[in-house]
Amino acid sequence: MFSSLRRWRRQRILQAHAIPEGLWRDSLEALPFLAMYTDGEIARLRDKVVLFLDAKSIVGARGHVVTPRQRVVIALQACVLVLNLDLAYYDGWESVVVYPDEFVPGWEWEDEAGVVHTNSDPMAGEAMERGPVILSWADVEASQDWEASGMNLAIHEFAHKLDMRNGAANGCPPLPAEMPPHVWKKTMLAAYEHFQKRVDRAERTSIDPYAAESPAEFFAVLSEVFFVEPRLLRHEYLGVYQQFTHFYRQEPAARTQLLLDA
Ligand SMILES: [Zn+2]
Predict the structure, then answer these.
(1) What is the pTM of this model?
(2) CA 62 to ligand 1 center in whole angstroms
(3) Which fold has domain 8-154?
(4) Euclidean distance between CA atoms 66 and 11, whole angstroms
(5) Distance 193 CA to ligand 1 centre (A)
């Protein structure tokens, strides 16, 4: 009974909030990395996007007006992470806040001596535990050109959200029952320490050196690479790539291989 009710509700949302074809095509064009997905996957992605937009509000801040295309472009990047996972991974928070460009979060933190500091560094994005995802639209837009920017801000922040599903971000999201956490932790830590050493000796890495910041940032940055330039991750950190294929239930490097062979 429960599942048929859920199915009915899902169907009703999909019909009531269907995305017009032109808007869908325009939004897909903004994200060239999605070209590697099959038509069937893109159709499932479209359903996920509709359900995501029904569940979350995407609101502008500091005068920014979020256009329908911006909503879909942001939702697409959120949903690519959970294409083969339950959308419930994003439960427990409600909104995406979009600034026109970088923002100063203004939150405070207390150091070990009890002194309160205000963060005044401008940021491009932030994912808050049990709170919103905050994005600078200028940086979401810059991310559309991976070759030039080497980043994907939206995927990065939504990866933090998955990580925060079981508490503060630490680079270990809740894993499915068949994935032993100790294997994940050992693989991620070995790769993280290896990457940190490369960054410490000022090596010019193909992966954004920001990944050396913490295990949480390592997970978020490597998730960007996994989805947008998967062959790079497979080449640089095969163990991490394999763990990600199990966690995300996708094998993106195999898709790009198919495209190259075609
Ligand atoms: Zn981050």
Answers:
(1) 0.92
(2) 22
(3) Cyclin A; domain 1 (1.10.472)
(4) 26
(5) 18
